[in-house]
Amino acid sequence: MNYNPYTLENKRILVTGASSGIGRATAVECAKLGASCVLCGRNEERLQETLSQLEGEGHSLIVSDLTTSEGRYSIVSQCGQLDGVVCNAGINKTAPIYFLKEAEVNAVITTNATAPMMLIHDLVTNRCIQAKASIVFTSSIDAITPAITTAAYGASKAALTNFMKICAKELAPRKIRSNAVMPGMIETPILAEMHMTDEELANDKQQYPLKRYGKPEEVAWAIIYLLSDAAAWVTGSVLTIDGGYTIR
């Protein structure tokens, strides 16, 4: 029996931030389900590593910086007709309010919110996203659960989540769906950048009812659901993937 409502066969999926973490896992898992993936990121070597892990054929990569109009144009000019877009690229800079630096705040907001907004604008206005396609944004529980030192990151993800809902309304006439995943702490390179001790990590994991952090592929599987025809009647929704953290 070959029935699979989550198949991505004959779908072309653009994944930003595909060089590591959730983006890489999403591309790998999408390929397993039959998608042809267009990988986007700033580091060509790491994108090549992702590309080497993909099953199937028809995959490609685009090295570009989404925070620039030139970088976004390179995507628009090379991506072809898309059945799905995963806006996953993001950065994090943690700092208490007393130590916020304008340049770092601007970098986080630009990368996490402005860049995906303008990418969708560019893809839509250039008719790169086909009717009945699916857009998925990677948000964060920091968008709804204020945490010390995450002012810029949380604000950027809150903006992105709201933008997702606007996309869902404005793009509905073309039957283009827009949704978001909202992960808790995931074992990605961003986690290493937080400079937490082993003891701090162990204590933090106890805040999660399931007593662990998530894995990139566990977020990828949720993204795949939203990309697939199994979610054909789902738009404007946020799928929380946080091991129960936000039910406290």
Residue stretches low in confidence (pLDDT < 50, at least 5 long) are: none
Shape: globular
User: Helical stretch count?
Assistant: 8
Radius of gyration (CA) equals 17 Å
Number of domains: 1
- Top CATH class: Alpha Beta
Write up what this structure looks like:
With 248 residues, the protein is α/β, with parallel strands linked by helices. The protein is built from eight helices and seven strands. The chain has a single domain (12-242), classed as Rossmann fold. It has a seven-stranded parallel beta sheet with strand order 3-2-1-4-5-6-7, sandwiched between helices. Helix 4 (102-125) links the parallel strand 4 (82-87) and strand 5. Helices cover 40% and strands 17% of the residues.
Give a brief description.
40% of the residues lie in helices and 17% in strands. The protein has 248 residues and is an alpha/beta fold. It has a single domain (12-242), classed as Rossmann fold, CATH 3.40.50.
Labels describing this entry:
8 helices, 7-stranded parallel sheet, 248 residues, Rossmann fold
Ordered list of secondary-structure elements with their pairings:
Layout: E1 12-16, H1 21-32, E2 36-41, H2 44-52, E3 60-63, H3 69-78, E4 82-87, H4 102-125, E5 129-138, H5 151-170, E6 177-183, H6 189-192, H7 198-205, H8 216-227, E7 238-241
Parallel strand pairs: 1-2, 1-4, 2-3, 4-5, 5-6, 6-7
Helix pairs in contact: 1-8, 3-4, 4-5
